[in-house]
Amino acid sequence: MRKILVALCLLFAVQTFAAGKAAAKPEPRPRVVHWMSYEEALAKAAKEPRLIFVDLYADWCVPCHIMDKNVYGDPTVASLLNIRFYPVKLDADSQDSIVCDGIKNTVQRCYFDVWELSALPAFVLVAPKGMSILTVTQSMSPQEMQYMLYQFLDKEKEWIAR
Question: What's the structural domain count of the chain?
Fold first, then answer.
C-alpha cells in the first residue's frame, strides 16, 4: 500500500511539473512589420526587384498610431509586407534627405511637392528604380489593407519594370 501511495505521489508531482512547464511557455509573438530605411529599400530593390511600400506618418497623427497597432500588427498584413514588399516608414515631417522620383529633397518636401499628399496616414508605392507608382491617403482596416496589397501584387510585374 505504501508503494502505491509513493507511486501516486510521484505521478502527481510529475504531472504537476509538466503542466507548470506547459503553462510557462510564452505566447507566440504577433508578427510585426520589419520596417527599413528608404535608402536600404532602394538598395535592396536594385539587387532583388520588389515594390517598395512607403508608410508616411507623423507623431501627432492619431489614425497613424491606430494603423500601427491594428493594421501593421495584423499577422497577414505583416507577412505580406515583409515577404513581398520592401516596407519603409517615413515621418512626413522629417527634414532628412531622400531621393524621391529622382529628386533629392527632404521627406517633408517629397510628401508635399513630389508625391502631392496632404493628409495622413498616407502610402506611396514605389518601383524598384525609385519612381512612385501611386499614392493612397486614408485609414483602413487590416482586411482593406490586405485587399489593397493583393491588388498591388496583381500588377507587380508591370510595375517592377518601371
Answer: 1
Rounded Cα distance between 75 and 68, Å, is: 12
The grid coordinates listed for 97 are 534627405
B/e letters for 19-29, b = 16+ CB within 10 Å, e = fewer, are eeeeeeeeeee
What gap in Å lies between CA 67 and CA 87, rounded to an integer? 14
C-alpha torsion angle, residues 122, 134, 80, 66 (rounded to 10) = 10
In a domain, 19, yes or no: no
**What confidence tens digit (pLDDT) does each residue in 67-108 have?**
999 999 999 999 999 999 999 999 999 999 999 999 999 999
Sign of the Cα torsion 6, 9, 13, 19 reads positive
